Amino acid sequence: MTSVEPGGSEVNDTDAGYVDGNALAGPLSEVFAVDVTTATSRCANCGCTGPLARLRVYKHAPGLVARCQQCGSVMLRATRTRDAVWLDMSGAVSLAIPVGET
Amino acid sequence: MARAAVPGRLGDRLRWRIAEVAGRRVESATAVTLTLEIPDWPGHLAGQHVDVRLTAEDGYSTQRSYSIASASNGRSLDLTVQRTSGGEVSPYLVDELVPGDQLELRGPVGGWFVWRQQQTEPVLLVAGGSGLVPLMCMIRTREAAGSRTPFRLLYAVRSPSDLLYGSELRQGAPGLDTTYLYSREALKDSARPPGRITPEDLARGGWPPDFEPTCYVCGPTAFVEKTAAYLVLLGHAPERVRTERFG
Fold this sequence. Notes:
CATH class of the largest domain in chain B: Alpha Beta
Distance between the termini of chain B: 28 Å
Number of domains of chain B: 2
Shape of chain A: globular
Shape of chain B: globular
CATH architecture of the largest domain in chain B: 3-Layer(aba) Sandwich
Number of helices of chain A: 1
Order of helices and strands of chain A: EHEEEEEEE
Low-confidence stretches of chain A: 1-15
Strand content of chain A: 35-45%
Mean pLDDT of chain B: 92
Largest interface: A-B, 39 and 50 residues
Number of strands of chain B: 11
Largest sheet of chain B: 6 strands, antiparallel
Low-confidence stretches of chain B: 1-5
Order of helices and strands of chain B: EEEEEHEEHEHEHEHE
CATH superfamily of the largest domain in chain B: Nucleotide-binding domain of ferredoxin-NADP reductase (FNR) module
Structural class of chain B: alpha/beta
Strand content of chain B: 25-35%
Oligomer: heterodimer
């Protein structure tokens, strides 16, 4: 794995334009206390479920754009401003986050 | 899977830490391994990555992700970095960093593309070029744990001179089978002509789908795309094929 940062200029390291949802792990670790890439999300468009790690992440947008691996709909967008992380999850119906048994 | 995917991280958000370069080893003409020492490193799982942040004197800052190459030892970690021509970060890491230099680092992160020693099913590792790095971490972790879980590695690489960890892989380990798939230039006595990975390569060097192996595929996006599709075509369940794309 080489570059997963928004706006990264090493464009030749994503020959097909996207990487896996694994790339969300670092940026989202700034706001979530657990690893959310293993969380199961449900696509608002096609209804398929799967771990965030399987989404297709496009990082050459301003921010990270994660699309459904089945239908290609935008499920999650994350943008870092100077003092905040903006998370748009309107494309995901739900997110089941593994936290271990109580 | 449900239990804390990342050791030392449940209930704590990650902060940037300062890592110091403690060693530098040339792996090939275009790759080096950097050994980084990080106080209070919580340890990592095989397959996880870290984010590295560089900040210039004028305040310009940029970050990249790199897979961890070494098995967790609680003190330090190895990153193997391949120089990307025209890249902004990798030439600096490969050519300029020397022991004593410091870097900002965040991690370990990622709980999906990981192998845990509690897993008992056979494992197929398919690497494209420097996609070998997180898979090597799995091989080293297996070895360090004394695990007998059967591993097969298919390593697609341009030519013998581009091999990473060549002598370590040649030395091998019990229960680890390694097959080299050269794409441009093979060894003279090689039975397989140079060429890109094929379904036959995966059928011959991998596991039958009936064995229900977990398959880890890492490499450039196009390589991963094709390999994962071939594995599913050969009958492997899509959820048993875990991928990590980069370039």
